[in-house]
Amino acid sequence: MNASVDIWRVLAGIAIFLLGVRFLEESLQRLAGRRFKLFLKKQTSSKIKAIGGGALVTGVLQSSSVVSLMVLAFVGAGIITMKNALAVILGANLGTTITGWIVALAGFNLNIETIALPVAGIAGLGFAIFNKQTKWFNWSRFLFGFSFLFVGLGYMKTGIEGLVMSVDLQQYADAPLFVFFLIGFLITSLIQASSATMAITLSALFAGAVTLNDAIAIILGSEIGTTIKLFVASINGAASKRRVALGSFLFNAITVLLVFLFLFPLSRLVTEVIGIKDNLIALVFFQSMVNILGIIIFYPFLDIFGRLLEKSFKTDQDETMFIHKADLRVPSAALVALENENRHFLFSVLDFTWGCFGERNRHLSAMNLHKDFPEKNLFEKYEYLKFLHGEIHAYYIQLQKNVVDKEDIEKLDRLISSIRNTMYAAKSIKDAIPDLEQLKNSANDVKYNFFCQTRDSVNEFCEKIYYLLKEGPALHFENITALYHSITGSYTNTLKQLYKDSTAGHLNEIEITTLLNFNREIFTAFKSFVFGVKDSLFDKEQSKYFDELPGFIR
Fold first, then answer.
1. Is 116 exposed, middle or buried (0-12, 13-18, 19+ CB in 10 A)?
2. Is the pLDDT of residue 499 over 50?
3. All residues at 6 or more sequence positions from 503 whose CB lies less than 8 Å from its CB, including other chains
4. 328 phi and psi, to 5 degrees?
């Protein structure tokens, strides 16, 4: 048998297996994503429940990365504490072993085609029959993923068996265990699926390509490799992300190091003392034992570990620019800080708005935005804006207690109104992104031209807002008033043009609905941004005029 053919067979098996994992993950998220999140939320009231919840959800989803992302979101929102987040991670580590048990118990003892082919056939029919939006389509995706796990496993099994027959692997038999450890680490770091690494290792063990101890070393390497994706993704992220990611890495690294030092006695414990003679079962049992050992080691220290991570990752990345430095006991200084923070928030939303249309204004590049803000992607920018909005609102509530002067109270109310309006503008832009992407990539000339016109109008609007914020107070009232009436008139004219295109047959019912929704979101964003700027720049008397305009958000 040709060795090169067998290598490609193994690689194809890995690819199909990974595709199966992806299908399973996506289908389950669509079928019960919210229920998983609610379950995790409820299961984090204590460390024990958090561990159990993490294990159960990961066992079903078979993706510790998805569970980790849920945890990051909960920590960022203040829903769960750091110690309970770390407990979920410990449970998730245990939950990932389920695939190994399924493969070891069923994957090599049953005729793979007997399982996979009928399931794939049923799933294929489901793809053809059911609409993508239905739960039956997602169940078909689930079955497809399930069948692909076994098809991929079959290719890996036969490919590795062929390699064993055609290539003398005994020359590698005396390689140090650390080499196999590195192999496991590198494979999992690259493919980011510890379940796939386990399937590959089980196939190699079944074919006699590696010994049990070699296989254990590979799996230990994968335990660290699986943390890399989360760790790398968190480098430029929020402090809470980095805390959880580092916690996950340290859990696995410390546990694996301890186990690796005592690998041989622990291996004998499994095979001789416990008496597991089947190498496949022994391997997955060892992996489960490692993760249970990690829970036992770290559980008593979760509180301390959580506090250490909190202290170690104090960073200004998730801090406000001004108000976190101001003393609330000095209202005059605190009010100035809030004013500066409001201005920073306005420019940040301006940057986000430009960025959604693929623009990067040269002026904003020189602005005193948060040092990491320009480098964030659109999702991260929006999350940071929500964070700022929450921090500013909390600061406003505290400052209210100390402000007694009537003019200062009025100014304080205008500033928080500015924040609310500007945040609403950011939300409207964010909500328009799916339609924006559709229009941007549309083959319909009317839709694509509409995108281009909107992009130009957004660029023009943002330029005007930028100069209004940068200039002094002169003519602000006239300019902002004119800008508001301009965008209102533009909205009305656009509606007329869209209905005209629809009547002429250039757009069908779905296309016209998409464009109408998109146009409304953009107009809402413009309108809210104008009011945000108005609240930031005008005094009480000047604001009265705008208070009577339609769409004012308080």
1. buried
2. yes
3. none
4. -65, -20
Q: 331 and 403 in contact (C-beta within 8 Å)?
A: yes
User: Which alpha helices (H) appear in 77-211, and where do they start and end?
Assistant: 82-95, 98-102, 112-129, 135-166, 177-191, 194-206
How many Å apart are CA 298 and CA 87, to the nearest integer? Answer: 9
Report the distance separating Cα 30 and Cα 211, nearest Å: 40
Q: What's the pLDDT tens digit per position in 147-184?
A: 776 677 667 666 665 655 555 555 556 778 888 888 88
Q: Quick one: which of 332, 335, 368 has its CA closest to 351?
A: 368
Residue 486 burial (CB count, 10 A): 16
Q: Which string of b and e fits 34-55 if b means at least 16 CB within 10 Å?
A: eebbebbeebbeebebbbbbbb
58: left (phi over 0), alpha (psi -120 to 50) or beta: alpha
With respect to CATH, is domain 328-547 assigned 1.20.58?
yes
CA distance readout (Å), 191 to 66, 145, 165, 479: 15, 17, 26, 55
**Residue 104 CA, distance from chain mean position:** 31
- Mention every residue, 6+ apart, whose C-beta is less than 8 A from residue 309: 82, 86, 243, 246, 247
For the chain, the first-to-last Cα distance in angstroms comes to: 75
Residue spans in the chain of domains classed CATH 1.20.58: 328-547
Amino acid in position 10:
V
Nearest to 325 by CA among 307, 344, 348: 344
pTM above the 0.90 mark? no
Percent of the chain whose predicted confidence (pLDDT) is above 90: 2
C-alpha distance from residue 224 to each of 194, 230, 248 (Å): 10, 11, 9
Q: Quickly tell me which residue has 């027959």 as its tokens.
A: 165
Q: How many CB atoms lie within 10 A of CB 153?
A: 27
Q: What are phi and psi of 238, to 5 degrees?
A: -65, 160
Collect all residues with Cβ–Cβ distance below 8 Å to 475 and sequence separation of at least 6.
none
